[in-house]
């Protein structure tokens, strides 16, 4: 009987955790896609209804998203989707620069087989970017570019870097998508990626660090001034 009770409790806990994970993923994607735009304020019940989910897992998902910096829980006033100012975007890119350059360095220091496998995945993502750009599919290009940067961090073997990168990437996503059509055609990104891949394949940790850092510095120096130039106070 005791074992049956324990099994029931374990199953219930697993089900609850799964529902929370689903609510977390769904709400985060809705924020990224601006279904809930920056500055949106609503009750947990309203958000749950719009997501087609029950309130309890949505409540726990909101707590997690507050830790990620995507929402803020307002006492007796519901939930606020956090807007970002240009200075926030600058700070986010500074974190991205530090995290991804370190990730590239660690990736290049991995054993040959491990880093070759990741380099192959990075090349596939870069090729997908080129294919999307050739057909003027900017959202497709952005998706492949985001995959490249995610693989770079996930492949380095440092779980803490991966978690930090995920948080700031989610925060920066709106800025990247907003400026995508306002920026110059992103033809140079693929070449920057190839330099990173070459350094990883060669096992040159210092060069991988330098190339990854230069790539993200260039992105910061293009996107942040553009946001400031068009006069956006928040996004």
Order of helices and strands: HEHHEEHHHHHH
Q: Rg from C-alpha positions?
A: 20 Å
Largest sheet, in brief, is: 3 strands, antiparallel
CATH superfamily of the largest domain: GntR ligand-binding domain-like
CATH fold call of the largest domain: Four Helix Bundle (Hemerythrin (Met), subunit A)
For the termini, the CA-CA separation is 55 Å
Low-confidence stretches: 4-10
Average of pLDDT: 87
Question: In the residues, how many domains can be counted?
Answer: 2
Largest beta sheet: what is the strand line-up? 1-3-2
Q: Structural class, from secondary structure content?
A: mainly alpha
Just name the CATH architecture of the largest domain.
Up-down Bundle
Produce a short descriptive summary.
The protein has nine helices and three strands. The protein is mainly alpha-helical.
How would you describe this structure to a colleague?
The structure is a single chain. A hairpin with a 3-residue loop joins β2 (71-74) and β3 (78-81). Helix content is 75%, strand content 4%. A three-stranded antiparallel sheet has the order 1-3-2. By secondary structure, it is mainly alpha-helical. The chain contains nine helices and three strands. It has two domains: 2-81, Winged helix-like DNA-binding domain superfamily/Winged helix DNA-binding domain (Arc Repressor Mutant, subunit A), CATH 1.10.10.10; 86-229, Up-down Bundle (Four Helix Bundle (Hemerythrin (Met), subunit A)), CATH 1.20.120. It is globular and about 55 Å long. α2 (44-51) packs across α3 (55-67). The relative contact order is 0.13.
